[in-house]
Design goal:
homodimer, about 230 residues, alpha/beta, Rossmann fold
Chain lengths: ~230, ~230
């Protein structure tokens, strides 16, 4: 397929980071094809958030792919392992936490690469962040660079001379900087879902790593998080 | 998880190459965990072949994962695109054919990587071949090397010091050499399925690239292919 430099594929989880990344991709002039993956995550409610975000931000397309990673397990998000909870960001234990899903971002980017190649796009956006994050190996610059190199030898498009770019515009931003960027671009964070372990009625727990990082980000930015938290009610 | 040097994950399609790779992995002393992926392939009958091969070769485990790549399409194997047919191997047009599935082997290796990390294995076997093959970019040595580098930065195991090895023991063998290796190790090729476009009763067509390469491999090896072909009946 002919290369179309204006089309981009975006991995959209429904969380704060990917919503902000979507807004940034649009600002950079891309026609954004969103891809959400249902992978058996404990917090599958984020899929509904992804649909709301895609509609709100005017994505050109929103595909939802399914792959059940519970077949492999090995993570608090896909297995019967408790999601770690803390009282504050500075109390989160160091090291890679139990919510790490083995090879998840490799799988997600592989699927985005497949979609990009079929629609003739060489631009893939992903909302990974290596500052206010959970220490996941597949959120670091080394990982993004290695995947970009792989994409160019793995595909027909790459072999025929196209150069894939994995855009990770949040990579070096703090959570508060991400939130400021999103607010500048009109992202409605009330539509997003970040919690790894929501209550049965889908309220964010407020104490998992993802909730803590989000809450601290809003506090540092001097903004109010529009979503409710079970822990604070 | 503690690294277990004797466990390996093998991508098992049910075809001739992956069956031979399974036998080679066992010969090298690995306990082989087979992984088959149902990806919406036209020739889904190969899944039944994978089950037969796994049982025949004594795999320690055989997981079957599903991801419907028809959502993206773009290939004769996953979309409404005709499978190219020829009369002989030397009449196959040059270039990457319509049966190329965008990013397929990247996706399959990503899933194998997830499974390997969860079971504490750093060895992944894949039956790609860059001699008697269809010109797919993700069957070449460059691709295997790039994925190996990615695996070591993408995973918790890699970051913590493990070194993943992507074993592709067929990479530089001709199809007849592969068949001789398999026969030496007792592989029953009557259990395997290679055809991209089988008849409604699951008989190999005999004229797709995969059938042609297989038939030539048996002829060159001076052996009889135990499976029937619709085209030759």
């Amino acid at each position: 397929m002919t290369e179309n430099p204006k089309n981009a594929v975006l991995l959209l989880s429904g969380g704060l980071d990917s919503a902000t990344t979507a807004a940034l991709a649009k600002e950079r002039g891309f026609t954004v094809h969103a891809l959400t993956v249902v992978y058996g995550q404990r917090h599958a409610v984020e899929i509904e958030a992804a649909k709301r975000v895609a509609a709100s931000l005017g994505m050109a397309e929103h595909l939802i792919e399914s792959i059940d990673l519970r077949l492999f397990g090995g993570s608090a998000l896909t297995d019967t392992i408790a999601v770690p909870k803390s009282e504050a960001v500075d109390q989160i234990p160091s090291g890679i936490p139990a919510t790490y899903v083995p090879a998840r971002n490799t799988i997600l980017l592989s699927l985005a690469l497949a979609h990009a190649e079929v629609i003739g796009s060489t631009d893939i956006f992903v909302g990974v962040n290596a500052v206010d994050y959970s220490g996941y190996p597949d959120c670091r610059p080394d990982f993004i660079a290695a995947f970009e190199r792989l994409a160019n030898v793995a595909t027909k498009a790459g072999v025929e001379g196209s150069n894939f770019t994995i855009h990770a515009p949040l990579l070096h931003l703090t959570k508060s900087e991400i939130i400021r960027e999103g607010l500048r671009l009109g992202v409605d964070y009330g539509l997003t879902h970040s919690c790894y372990d929501p209550t049965p009625n889908h309220t964010a727990c407020g104490r998992c790593d993802s909730c803590l990082l989000r809450r601290k980000g809003f506090a540092d930015a001097g903004k109010t998080d529009p979503i409710p938290y079970a822990y604070l009610e």
